Amino acid sequence: MSTVQLKFLGCGDAFGSGGRFQSCILGKTETCKFLVDCGASSLVAMRQRGIDPNDIGIILISNFHGDHFGGLPCFLLERIWGLMVAGPSGLRKKLREVMEVTFPGSSKIKGKFPLNVEELSLGCPCWFGPLHVRAFAAEHPPEDPHVHLRIECSGKVIVYSGDTEWTETLERISRDADLLVTEAYFYEKKIKFHMDFRTLSQRVAKGGVPRVVITHMSEEMLARRGDSGFECADDGKVIEV
């Protein structure tokens, strides 16, 4: 069984708390490289780390907010080779819209190689090369689809919360995972549709999740990260699963 390497190219929130780049995680297996989310600052983060966009074969999107999705227009215009982008229901329409808003006419440009866009049906398995991916509903309004992503590759299971309050689904799909990457936006302040650390720690202890890495932290949470007892993401941090 081989390992999966994850590099946090961006682990910040929408507001640049702590001077961090927005959500973007590079996954690497023996046979492919993929991104989980592509926030607005992602291409800059990739350039700083010497990562060629053309090496990425798959991008998985958890939601359509700018700090998770807004980097796609620049990324797509920079690429040469083919690419698979997969995400929540409505992805095709949202991608066309964001391309047209940021670079008018760009959604109609035909590249030499195909751009494949896949909308993930909740709970249904999809294969993208070596990745086995399932999406599950996160806690957000139905008109603003957010998903948890469960990614199986190289014999390992990685769960990514995306933006969400704690859900029983997240607990269920994380129990047998090798890694849960989850937001902890505030330490104990409750804010709708986001996770606070107090709730996370209580639920993780109850659910028996084996390994947790915290990301998407506000300034307040960053100031108290040392109190968490969990691994915390940093831009450039590399872990192996």
CATH class: Alpha Beta
Number of strands: 14
Kindly report how far apart the N and C termini lie: 11 Å
Shape: globular
Number of domains: 1
Order of helices and strands: EEEHEHHEHEEEEEHEHEHEE
Strand content: 25-35%
Please name the CATH architecture. Answer: 4-Layer Sandwich
> Could you describe the largest sheet, including whether it forms a barrel?
7 strands, mixed
Helical content class: 10-25%
* Spatial extent as radius of gyration: 17 Å
Task: Please identify the structural class as seen in this structure.
Answer: alpha/beta
The stretches of 5 or more residues where confidence is low (pLDDT under 50) are none
Mean pLDDT level:
94
What is the strand arrangement across the widest sheet? 6-5-4-3-2-1-14
> What is the fourth-level CATH superfamily?
Ribonuclease Z/Hydroxyacylglutathione hydrolase-like
CATH topology category name: Metallo-beta-lactamase, Chain A
Number of helices: 7
SSE blueprint and pairings:
Blueprint: E1 5-10, E2 24-28, E3 33-36, H1 42-48, E4 58-60, H2 66-69, H3 72-78, E5 83-87, H4 91-102, E6 115-119, E7 126-128, E8 131-137, E9 147-153, E10 156-160, H5 168-174, E11 179-183, H6 197-207, E12 212-215, H7 219-223, E13 231-232, E14 238-240
Parallel strand pairs: 3-4, 4-5, 5-6, 10-11, 11-12, 12-13
Antiparallel strand pairs: 1-2, 1-14, 2-3, 7-8, 8-9, 9-10
Structural write-up:
With 241 residues, the protein is of the alpha/beta class. The protein has a single domain (5-233), classed as Metallo-beta-lactamase, Chain A (4-Layer Sandwich). It contains 7 helices and 14 strands. The protein has helices spanning 42-48, 66-69, 72-78, 91-102, 168-174, 197-207, 219-223, and strands at 5-10, 24-28, 33-36, 58-60, 83-87, 115-119, 126-128, 131-137, 147-153, 156-160, 179-183, 212-215, 231-232, 238-240. α7 links the parallel β12 and β13. The N and C termini lie close together (11 Å).
